[in-house]
Specification:
This protein is α/β, with parallel strands linked by helices and 368 residues long. It has 12 helices and 12 strands. It has a domain of 238 residues: Rossmann fold, CATH 3.40.50. The strands form 3 sheets. A 7-stranded parallel sheet has the order 3-2-1-4-5-7-10, sandwiched between helices. Helix 1 links the parallel strand 1 and strand 2. Belongs to the NAD(P)-dependent epimerase/dehydratase family. Dihydroflavonol-4-reductase subfamily. This is NAD-dependent epimerase/dehydratase domain-containing protein. Pfam families: Epimerase. It comes from Meripilus lineatus.
């Protein structure tokens, strides 16, 4: 299937989201035209203002309920590719169906709309997650695109509402991605487009979408903030607990390359590497931090709480572990990103210290 060239019109679902706004920005900067979907008209004011320099290269389409059959029928018309980022991401659902049904119906629904009404669509890119890849492990493992998180599905089936919130989310991502490939494989002979899924781990980085408080930010940003600033996981967890991560700007770039490159296909894991939470504290000590424009961003673990009493309550900043050695850290979750390198050309990633400092600049600008 040929690549989708600059100048083409790209549909981005959930355009006001954390990841989606960066995808829209990267597409526009790369010379594409964008149609973004939002759930209500009032969500569009901020987006229009933020991207005003691009004029009519950005248009918005209101899709109130992504679970409704045919919800995207109008939105997919006359677009050349689709970037589907709209899916619930939180751990607060009681009923697993609150996460699972919108994820599956929204994902399969846009594929159905593309098959039914998207006569010019050449490629569909779906944002999934390594939550659909991993399985519980107490020892270091290397995961790749052949791995599926079937354990989360079984646990939700067995425990229902009593399953942990993050397990419900993991199951929703796994089931939605499986459903997407099942639909595509069943209809491969009758569709004119191919399918790519992009699976990132934790996504960090500066926020450009319209959020007023940290509590309403993307779930991964909230967890970062609470862990680093508010001792949510405790001191020991800083050096013992971690995962893998990716800067949101690299994730947006991967989405754009997934439509640019003819060879992009199937499931693709994109990750900068593994981390322990302590690594983000350590990044505040780098010499380059002193080059930043605002003192807030020249934070160190020991001085951060004194910068703003409103944000850093006494003893609120998680103390550092003096015995932590990043060179000796054992990472249980590791991802093979050779496919992303081969198909998307993802060979260089934004480093952890830059991601950290850019988030701190963003937090300061928002008064967080």
């Amino acid at each position: 299937m040929p690549a989708v060239p600059a100048g083409s019109k790209i549909l981005v679902t959930g355009a006001n989201g954390f990841v989606a706004m960066w995808v829209v920005r990267t597409l526009l900067q790369s010379g594409y035209r964008v149609r973004g979907t939002i759930r209500s008209d009032d969500k569009g004011d901020f987006i229009k203002q933020y991207f005003s320099e691009f004029g009519d290269k950005l248009e918005l389409s209101t899709v109130p309920d992504i679970e409704k059959d045919g919800a995207f029928d109008e939105a997919v018309k006359d677009v050349d590719a689709i970037e589907h980022t709209a899916s619930p991401y939180h751990y607060g659902a009681d009923d697993p169906a609150e996460l699972i049904q919108p994820a599956i119906k929204g994902t399969v629904g846009i594929l159905k709309s593309a098959m039914r009404c998207g006569s010019s669509v050449k490629r569909i890119v779906i944002t999934t997650s390594t939550a659909a890849v991993v399985r519980p492990t107490q020892e270091p493992l290397l995961f790749n695109e052949d791995d599926w998180n079937n354990d989360s599905i079984r646990q939700v089936e067995e425990e229902g509402v009593n399953a942990p919130g993050y397990i419900k989310y993991f199951a929703s991502k796994t089931l939605a991605e499986k459903a997407a490939f099942e639909f595509y494989n069943e209809n491969r002979d009758s569709v004119k487009w191919d399918l790519v899924t992009i699976a990132p781990p934790y996504v960090f980085g500066p926020t450009i979408n319209d959020v007023q408080t940290i509590s309403t930010a993307n779930t991964s940003i909230v967890e970062w903030y609470e862990t680093i600033f508010e001792s949510a996981k405790g001191t020991l967890a800083l050096s013992k607990v971690g995962n893998a991560w990716l800067d949101v700007r690299d994730l947006a770039l991967a989405h754009v390359r997934a439509i640019q490159r003819q060879e992009a296909q199937g499931r693709i894991i994109v990750s900068s590497g593994s981390f322990k939470w302590h690594d983000f504290c350590e990044s505040g000590h780098t010499p380059r931090a002193n080059e930043l424009s605002h003192p807030y961003s020249r934070m160190t673990v020991t001085s951060a709480k004194s910068l703003s009493p409103r944000i850093y309550r006494e003893n609120a900043f998680t103390p550092a572990d003096p015995n932590y050695d990043p060179n000796k850290a054992v990472h249980e979750l590791n991802f093979d990103t050779s496919k992303a390198e081969r198909l998307l050309g993802m060979t260089e990633y934004i480093p952890l210290d830059k991601c950290t400092r850019d988030m701190l600049e963003d937090f300061h600008g928002r008064g967080w």
